User: Fold these one by one.
Assistant:
Number 1:
Amino acid sequence: MPRDDITLAGLQDLLDKLPGLEEVFFEANLQLKSVKIHFGDGAYYTFSKNGYSKGHYSKIYYGITVVHQDRGISTQLTTYVAPSAQSSANREAVASAIRYFQLTEGTVMTRDVEACAFEAPQ
């Protein structure tokens, strides 16, 4: 079953707003953060940085919940990012995960989304 229109709209809204979200969401550290954003008619989503593990297999954990109260729809999505020291690379990895959720029916992205910082050639 394809994603419902409210979830797709919420994911697109989050993708559009991702560049303007606070850096703390994308920094590889223990500081957690959550934001609730209303969109459309009676709908909202929450985007949360739910955790960070440091070590050989470092991860930043994220959650997205899209809710439309009138229709009783609630979709919960989770993913993790193998972080870079550069928050801009982590932000792009989260954007990749959101695009994955837009195109699939999955609710958990279990594979790593690598955050890679590329340097311009000299």
Number 2:
Amino acid sequence: MRGAKAAAAAKRQTARQKSKPPGFTESLYTRRSFQAEFESVALKGAALLQLDVDVVLKYLERDARVVIVQKNVCVCLELSLAYLSLRFSVTHAVKFVEPEDAEAIAEGITEVDFGVLEMKTTLQKLVDQISEIEHWGASAARTQEHCAYVPSVEEQLEELLAKRLNTQETLQTVLYKIESAATEVEIMKGYDTSARTLRAVLPNPLLQKESIDATMERMADVLGDHKEIEDAISLGNDLAASSAGVPDVDDDELKDELGMLIEEQKKKEEEEKERLRLEEKHKAEEKERARVEAEKKRKARRTRRR
């Protein structure tokens, strides 16, 4: 996969990730789950080779800076149809991050992230095994009439299926609780940041009680001075108008005059409506008279022809 194709594939993968519901667990993938999740969008239906996955991950990590890739050797649960065992494995963890989230980038992939990945991997294995057990159960039911041992096998499969479903439900519940706890951690971080910021602002001398009282007192004085200035200007305007012979205008007189103007405008509008109504009525009457006259003339012509 060349650079242009890698960039296009990475862009589609990033868009696919952003379209998913936000959540701590939704941002984590193993190498295999990453390939399975994004194979359908990376090359528009073409299969991703291991080398293609390496190229796309490198582009996302180095150029786009939206993922962190880390290798970890750990002890994992090996789940079979009948038992659980331990094995060592190498896990390639992929974590989507925001490019501007410096804290998450510096933190990298934590032990908690690897633990969540192991749980998600185990859950996927459970889903696959449940489908396999259900398939075997259906096959056993179809051949029950032909083999005497089938009922016993079917009962064992049903018992095993119930255990696996119970395990799946338990792991899924734990995963939800981890997601909820991670969200609560982010909330508490926000609270902590807010508290520290507020604590840093409160010691400001301007927010001390003595300073606040003095500031509000000065504000009251300034507003009082401003009110006196406004009153003086208003009085000066009145005196100037009186000296120039401009009559005083009473507010009540202005209101009355405004009311008269409004009433006069309403009266004009009513008169105009009445005039238009009478014109329409007159036109209708004229039209009716013309129709009656025309009808009389037609009747007279018919009478003369007879």
Number 3:
Amino acid sequence: MNDSTPEKQPQRVPKSPNAQKEDNLVSVNSDELSAYNPRGTHPHSAPKEHLAPIHLIPTEILLHIIHFYVKGSADPVQDLSALTLVYQRWHAVVEDASSLWDRIDAYEGLAAVRKRLRMAKDAALHITYNQRHSRTDQLAFFEAIGERIDQSRSLVVDGLEAEHCCAILETTIPRRLETLHLSGYTGLRGRSDDEPLILFSGAAAPPGLRDVHLACIPGIAVTPLKRLHSFFLSALAAPHLQKLHIECNMRGNPASQLLNDDLVRLVPTLTSLISTASEIQVTSTNSFEWLCNHLGGHLDKLPFHLGIEAYKSNLAYLEWFTSRVVVTKLSLWASSDVWDFKSSTGEMVRLLSHPIPSSPTSWFLPDVEVLVSSLVWEGSHPEILEMIERRHSANREQHGGSGAPKKFKEIWLSCGNPSARKPMRPNVVFLKAVETAGEGADLYWEGKKWTSAGHEE
């Protein structure tokens, strides 16, 4: 009878919710985990000598690894969520690290945006809406963000219009905001051109605001600059402002009308900005001349980077530059036209190779110490080399006096030939001659440092 008595089966004890959760977490990648943990022991309870190396990594290093893992992902939110299922420790690390969730980008879609907002908690946010890549419209995107825009550290909106973001910024001052980029090429619907757009309720801008880029925001794009003036007044109150970039579309209005009739009202504001500016970028000749005439006292002390494309001989204009501002870096670029590519080389280089005709002891752009040229082709080698030799020779003969050209500290050369299908191989004989003429100047070919040893560093 004993032999026929059925054995008692051990009772199955229900697992706690936490234990069930842990089973679920581990079972997702159980085959992979068993390869790293062949004994099947719990990493937190097992002796250290039995733990796989991944379990011994400090949390901050594990976070760096996760950051790199999701950096180039097409769906980072999904990948982060998958990592929480690998192991309980990873689950805690990923969910507790707000830095993994603080980049709110419309290209991920609304579901991902809402998930990121929940996980980021009270962290400073980097918010981006690019209409070309977005998976949602601007209204829905900013409605999802709502009051959390107050947490934004950077706010970038690039699209046909920026009305929803601008509407929020009219009444909200994101106290942590450091970067503000707004582009809206078709306008703010429901507003007239003369209706002012006053950001931050007319109050001072966020105290940490450092970088402002406004592109074709209406009220800036049209001739009456009331909106631009309002924003300037707000931006001026930001003590750490380092960069202000404004792109204006004249919309058929002559540049002279905009500069003389409207922008002149902003001279006091612009003067305050430029007095502490370390870099000013001007792409319009008319605008540059206007700035020099109205704000010259501040511009005289700033080093300038002058970029010239397909230069056509204009002695008077180049002489004006020489007498008006201090150009320390000169870039010569080729246009898309092959003829301009060749003809512009000789004109500009020859002017830099001789003193100013009206003053034999003064040279064009004497303060240039960094030369960047993409106009290098076989026929230009003698002219470029002669220009460097003559300027350095004049520096020695005039003992670096007033009007004498300074010696080059950096020479960046490349072939900008628009018909070239691949980068031109360096002419070793030519570059060695340039290195000798440069008298210690750092020499670069196609963006890489070049030495007489015959190799690129």
